[in-house]
Design a protein that fits this description.
Number of strands: 19
Mean pLDDT: 89
Oligomer: single chain
Largest sheet: 7 strands, mixed
Order of helices and strands: EHEHEEEEEEHEHEHEEEEEEHEEEH
CATH architecture of the largest domain: 3-Layer(bba) Sandwich
CATH superfamily of the largest domain: FAD/NAD(P)-binding domain
Helix content: 10-25%
Shape: elongated
Amino acid sequence: MPRRRRRPRPRRPGSAVATWDVVIVGGGSAGLSAALMLGRSRRSVLVVDGGRPRNAPARHMHGVLGRDHTSPLDLLAAGRAELTRYDVAVESGEVADVAGVEADASGPAGPAFEVVLDSGERHLARRLLVATGLRDELPDIAGLADQWGRGVALCPYCEGWEFRDRRIAVIASSAANAHQAQLLRQLSADVVFCSQGAVLTPAARSGLDARGIVVEDRRVVEVFADDGGRLRGIRLEDGGEWEADAVFVAPKAVPHDDLLRRLRARSMRQGGVDHVLVDEDGRTSVRGLYAAGNVVGSRSSVPWAMSSGSLTGAAINADLVDEDIRNAVDARG
């Protein structure tokens, strides 16, 4: 069997432009899952990854079938290793610029994108997938960020089991976090809900009271730890304290969607944040431009991000097949 060739790639900054079927920006669960589907469809793919996954502070991930209680970084390393058998290249770095370009007579028909890396390398792509994730903006409470990924968590499904039957404090960003406290009450009988001034409906307060969840209306001003850095509790505005083994919050999820906006993808405000709109296949309003994972949805589940990337990767391949058919028909005249 003849050996399969990889597409030519630049070897130094400023060298010749390489052309790929798909460039994927973001090498997290969504981006690598899309690359896997595309690579298995014999597409040439470049993944550009800045190395800052959202769940990097977490020592373990949970609720991921076959990978429960393992490092999220180990999952990504395993994913990269799996891609080596396909025509997929992974570059570490950032995208400095991106633009839509017109295809010339020697290139692929249809839309194309030019991607410039911070190294100076330039790449052309028939399709562009952005899977750059999001960042979590934590409430401005002293000590909270220091405990993020250790004693401070977001998701009851991802981290709740590890704090079962322990002392849990839920710090609200809004009245909706009362439901977060109810989910955690399923795991522990010792839960305090810190309202932070949020106005609870009578039904919400009644539900908290009925299940033995303490409602604390004094504001939390600090999360404090012991000398070894282990979470000890929360401090209130009047100096009062609650001892806690875990603190759960609901940070504001802000998508890393600068590249999508530069290409003028349509967005809509949802939950106080502008999100780029995609259809069920990950298509944006810009022809040939796709997005997958947390950059277009704030769900924190690794399996959801993997599913989003996998489905979008398959959709991109189908789109390219349609274009290949048109090109073949045109070539026959």
